[in-house]
Amino acid sequence: MLLKVAKVHAEISDARNDFIPFGTLREHKLTTRLVRENQTIAVEDLAVKNMVTNRKLALSISDASWGELVRQLEYKCDWYGRTFVKIDRWFPSSKRCGHCGHIVDKLPLNIREWDCPKCSTHHDRDVNAAKNILAAGLAVSAPVTHGGNPHRPWRLPLGEDRAGLSVERT
Known about the structure:
By secondary structure, the protein is an alpha+beta fold.
């Protein structure tokens, strides 16, 4: 009986690794590729522990292993000398128009596409959020010359940047 239970658990684990984009080996390959191909990695600092408490999302979030993905990106950026930027979870990445910068007041989670009331640009919620997170990460990580010497970059202190974002840089 114990052997049957172990086989069922192994089958479930294998199925998850086959169909979930972030299985252990795939996750390492993906994060290594992302870090090697990019100078700056920007991620949203999501409260994964809080999100797992939502019964509707818990299994999907746990299966996707978001926290592990971010952990691997962070240490690999350190290894490869890349910049890793965490954008504050309260930054309105989904609600900010990536074209004109307008922030909509409310954008419920069930709304997947929206039009900016200011510039009429049509947005896919997730694509727009990704573009805004990238822009925020690049704004934070871009060196600012100080004292007129372009070869000696000066970075803004932690938690400050030119775009007015609250960030954590590692």
